[in-house]
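call fold(seq) -> tokens
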Amino acid sequence: MTPLSLFTQIGLLILLATLVALALKTIKLPPLLAYLLTGVIAGPWGLNLISEQQLLLGLSSFGIAFLLFLVGLELDLKKLKSLGKTVPLIGIGQMALTAGLGYLIVRLFGINNLASWYMALALAFSSTIIVVKLLTEQNELDSLAGRIAMSMLLMQDAVAIFALITLSSLGSTSNLLIWHITWAVGKGMLLIVTVYFLSYYVLPKLFNFLARSAELLFLTSLAWCFAMAMFSSWLGFSIEIGAFLAGLALASLPYNFEISARIKSLRDFFITLFFIALGSQLSLSGFGSLQPLFWTLIVFVLIGNPLIVFILMWLLGYRKRLSFLVGLTMGMISEFSLILAGMGLKLGHLTPEQVALITGVGVVTITISSFIITHAESLYQIVARYLTPFERHDIQDELTNLPNNLTNHVILIGYHRLGEKLATTLNELGKTTLIVDFNPSVIRRLVADKKPCLYGDMGDIEILQRANIEKAEMVISTNSNLADNLMIVKNIRQQDLRTPLYLTADTWHDCRELYAAGADYVIFPHYLSSQHFSLLLQEMALNKNRVLVDKNKHLKELELHYANRNNH
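ret:
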């Protein structure tokens, strides 16, 4: 049989991947699984459509380079700080425990030291792409659980990048010598410092000049990506690491979104080829001896990873519902795990059978975990009563100032910014106000001030019950997250309560959804601020001193606000 041309092979692979992706979409599985399955079908154990395996692998490396270029381009380190100090502790603890336990498990099955560390690292990372997609589809990405999960995933991505930098510098050596790792880290730090210097003093001027032409901006971005990839390779690192640093160097430029939008289509095409090529390497020969390890790792990722996260969050005082939901997002391995496996194969650190095992674990865990995350809330309702012993009542009591026999009170959800002003107004009106917030530092400040407060997530029905919702005069949510507010409406209306609900939204679309769900009034800050300023403009037209009066009043409130903060 005459071998098919490269063009025909790629064309058939893309057509097959499209058909498989459409089929999997009907059962709500992510496209990544379709690409891996396409590789299996088209590979030597299937239709054997791929005769240019090495050439396909070469083309697929473009996908990884573009993927890491975009990761660097869109990296926002501020998100790692958005939820305080506890989330980094959970993220670091999860990766350390998963990698440590994973290493011990793999070693028990007789795998060599270097391969064991590869597998252990692969187990420590969860898929950012898939979790983001699933949470977005459920409108949960901006929920409290979604934000914590995303912060942890960003930390994992950063560690994965560092691992790729280190491992790629080891070449084909089978020994992780301390001096070798130190030299690799030193070169990596030098490379990062160089990129930092260029991103602040050279690239802004260059790209400001080039930005006059969209095509030139796109072409120069690609040239910069390839130049850094080649320079990284010359230093002994992989081309993928150079691509990541190239993207990181452009992340602070005002054109990063435009560059990202243009390169995403290239990334999507070539990353498809990468996962197809990886799937085609799933080898059945010799895999039988690794089957006990294969199933052990699947159980460890699906159950052990979520359990590790749950225990860490429980120890730090998080509520059981939040700990459970965040833990479920970690029950799969990452696309970076598959990239790591591919790099290990290329460097000779892993055998094809070991790469097949990692890929197989990825396929199974991503498939099962996708279903689990989609039905996370229903699963929580089933197991909630069994998790009650895991509530840290000592921390909950410390973060609570709950008066006895609360009645005719206002439940105010969220104290930051809008909530603080509303609490002052409600107190001036003589209303008893119970503040509910998930930020421990905020609650500690309120407890110190002896203000009624409760630590927790209003999406949890137990918090509603502790807040004595059935006797509340009204509920005001200053949290603009649509998913959280819809959950509040659902929980309250399911109890047949007609408590007035005043909820906050960021967009017109969210306003309409909240009204449709049963909100009595939606606080829309953009609309209200424009209304208020319009009235202010009318009054200024009649009295030009009005703006000075309002300015002085505003300044006094700011001074009082920061004085109160400094006292704590």
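The longest helix spans residues 144-168.
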